[in-house]
Amino acid sequence: MLASKPSDRIPHMPTAKGTFDVNILPIEPYNTDASSKLGRMSLDKQYHGDLAGSSKGEMLSAMGEVQGSGAAVAVERVTGTLAGRTGSFSLYHIGVMVGGTPQYWRVNIAPDSGTDSLQGIKGELKIIIEGKAHSYELEYELP
User: Fold this and answer.
1) CATH number of the domain where residue 83 is located
2) What is the pLDDT of residues 63-74, one digit of tens each?
3) Which residues contact 45 (CB under 8 A, 6 or more apart)?
């Protein structure tokens, strides 16, 4: 077996870990027809741990005809400190639930959204929910 050259390897991305608190409140949707099954919510988060800060955002959802099924998208703007660097960046979420079970939930840092000393940040955030406790693991890279 041939060993890969250092330039062929994917560099290990640092991982920030911690908890977050989230407050989700309904917002009046643009389409108020109940048969549309569309929802709109505000997101207000506090991040603790390796990423310390807060975020504000919005989520849009489309519910299916089966209870607990649907899809959602969200965006949030995070402002805080990560790895001793302060600034802000945006996250975008894409999620799918089937019969109340999450099938897919992806959260990525929006390209070129980093500011100040977080400029150029890239990565993906994993949300972990155990009971009512929320935590995160953010794999990221900074220039």
Assistant:
1) 2.40.350.10
2) 999 999 999 999
3) 20, 21, 22, 23, 54, 55, 56, 57, 76, 78
